[in-house]
Specification:
The protein is built from 13 helices and eight strands. The chain has 434 residues and is of the alpha/beta class. The protein has two domains: 10-78, no CATH class; 105-430, Ureohydrolase domain (Arginase, Chain A, 3-Layer(aba) Sandwich). Strands 2-1-3-8-7-4-5-6 form an eight-stranded parallel sheet, sandwiched between helices. Helix 7 runs parallel beside helix 8 and helix 8 (234-245) packs parallel to helix 9 (283-290). It is elongated, with a radius of gyration of 32 Å. 45% of the residues are buried.
Length: 434
């Protein structure tokens, strides 16, 4: 028993002699960790001079010794990363990741377009407006949504731009095609009175259209692509484009939509008040009445929504002058065939292309008035590229409903941006020297 007690007394003392105390062990572990971190990150985490000042020269010597003996970090030690000087910011001039930075469409430079008079070839401008919606609002967030969806755009040739290998579109990067493209930001449109808001949009377009072109071979003035906004905005876009570029007889309007939008104002909205008669379903009626639409050279594409009254088809075709291609016509004629039909209707006239996002089928997007039986994204891109050679003087994308927390916002944004990308391809390929 006596010897057992002696043994119990001796063991802890022996352990204390052979093992480091808690402070020494913790210090060695911290040193090893700092050694590994230093070998991997170099001076990013700390500077050895600072360590010496804070912890004493002895601690620094221990750290340096362990760094030399650290086998795990040996590859990093042999390939030390050298950081720029702390005041050297030259790499900040390089383009950052696609998901970063102030969001303009496709990372285009933002320009002051309403007051300055710098030459511009193609201007992107937002129209955050949805006071003319009859069903689902949210398109006031569309300009921002389209820009968010464009973050991966802005350069490089696409392997699917153009419908055949010999196409000029296939070899075109619209963002680096010699034309000056800028993002003008948004027109400040009031959300409280559609009359004032639409007048603001018209004056904004008028100001941009007054810019001279920069390097265009075909146009003396700036062309505009508008990010909407509900479809009511097209009336102002079309008016300003017609006043700037239009020929007698109007512009050929290529109208992608699930709805005809030439409805009688007395039926859709006007039965309540004259103020309500101008909306996203009647604007083309007013555009045709004002002479902005070239009758028999304009066309609806993707139509599938029910007509409101029995006279709608006759009013649309005879009074407003539109041909109609339904969504099922794409099955009959194919996407390439639809593009050829559109070109034959437009002919050689100057054209304005307006694209309602509800042309896509319901599973793809969120929009102002969704309808079943729409087109796929590939069909639409094929039709748009098939319009190569058409003389587009202006375009817009509308009914981009990307209100906060809405369903399908990401795909809605992406598809809106992709349509605008196709529009820019068509506008730039027409404006290339032979």
């Amino acid at each position: 028993m006596h010897w057992f007690l002696i043994a119990l007394t001796f063991v802890p003392h022996a352990a204390s002699l052979s093992a480091p105390n808690n402070y020494e062990y913790r210090l060695s572990q911290e040193n090893a960790k700092e050694s590994l971190m230093h070998d991997i990150f170099g001076s990013l985490m700390h500077d050895s001079n600072i360590i010496a000042e804070r912890n004493g020269a002895h601690r620094n010597e221990q750290l340096l010794e362990q760094q030399e003996a650290s086998p795990i970090s040996f590859p990093f030690k042999m390939n030390q990363l050298h950081y720029p000087d702390i005041d050297d910011l030259t790499d900040f001039k390089q383009r950052g990741p696609l998901f970063s930075g102030i969001v303009t469409f496709a990372h285009l430079p933002q320009d002051e377009c309403f007051f300055a008079r710098e030459p511009i070839d193609i201007a992107i401008v937002g129209a955050p407006f949805d006071l003319g919606v009859s069903y689902n609002s949210g398109a006031r967030f569309g300009p921002n949504g389209a820009r968010q969806g464009s973050r991966r755009l802005g350069g490089g040739n696409s392997p699917i731009r153009g419908n055949y290998r010999a196409s000029k579109l296939r070899r075109l990067d619209p963002y680096n095609a010699g034309l000056k493209l800028v993002d003008c930001g948004d027109v400040p449109m009031t959300p409280f009175d559609s009359r004032i808001a639409l007048n603001q949009l018209y004056r904004g377009h008028h100001a941009i259209h007054k810019h001279s072109s920069f390097n265009s071979t075909q146009f003396n003035n700036t062309r505009i692509v508008t990010l909407g906004g509900d479809h009511t905005i097209t009336l102002m876009n079309l008016r300003s484009a017609y006043e700037t570029f239009g020929d007698p007889g109007g512009l050929a309007v290529i109208h992608f939509d699930a709805h005809i939008d030439t409805w009688d104002p007395k039926v859709l909205g006007g039965g309540i008040s004259d103020y309500a008669s101008l909306n996203h379903g009647t604007f083309l009626h007013f555009a045709a009445e004002a002479g902005y639409v070239a009758k028999n050279h304009s066309v609806h594409v993707g139509i599938r929504a029910p007509f409101i009254s029995g006279i709608d088809e006759k009013h649309d075709a005879v009074d407003c002058g539109f041909k109609t291609l339904t969504s099922k016509d794409v099955d009959v004629y194919t996407a390439k065939g639809i593009a050829e039909i559109i070109k034959s209707i437009v002919g050689h006239r100057k054209a304005y292309l307006t694209f309602d996002l509800d042309t896509f089928d319901v599973g793809y997007i969120n929009s102002g008035t969704l309808e079943a039986g729409g087109l796929s994204s590939r069909e639409i891109l094929t039709i748009l590229d098939g319009l190569e050679g058409i003389n587009l003087v202006g375009c817009d994308i509308v009914e981009v409903s990307t209100a906060p927390n809405t369903v399908n916002s990401a795909s809605t944004e992406l598809l809106a941006a992709q349509v605008v990308d196709s529009m820019l391809g068509l506008m730039t390929v027409f404006d290339q020297p032979e």
